[in-house]
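Quick sanity check, Methylamine utilisation protein MauE domain-containing protein:
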Amino acid sequence: MITCQALLAGVFVIALAGKVRGRAALDEFVASIVALGMFPRARSVVAAYAVLGAEAVVILALVLPYTLLLGFVAATALLIVLTAGISAALRRGRRAPCRCFGASVTPLGRTHVVRNLVLTAVGCVGLAAGAAAGDAGSAAHPAGVVLALATAAVGALIVVRLDDLIGLFSTSVSPR
């Protein structure tokens, strides 16, 4: 459960920080939501700010001990909404740069859908583990906490740098 909590909280903190790190980053994020063409421009701007607010709520809910299960529910729900939005845009042939973590210029694609589905599964696992533990949970062993946090950090790094990793290991042959 600690790994799921730290992974999701870390990913959402990095995502939110990447979008609000400066005026240009925020404008690029809003422009990417507008470019997806899900709504008219004004509604797209509102949707972009709603995503930022939802990410902030998810982070708070995941880090506060008494709202952890709610945090897993909120993270999972947000990821489902984002995945549905990306999928709908792809079906309509709309591609915009993924500004999920800031400055990437990689267009949204199936990779991002799979990434979000994996994160959704992490949220479901965290929710199930938290519900199963209930109030009977004893304090975790310090070594287990360290291992859980290290695992979460590696997972978050992979999620955040996924576009770079795919670019590094993909082979593309330029047409002649």
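Posting the structure with no commentary besides this: Helices lie at 2-20, 23-35, 41-63, 68-91, 110-133, 142-160, 162-169.
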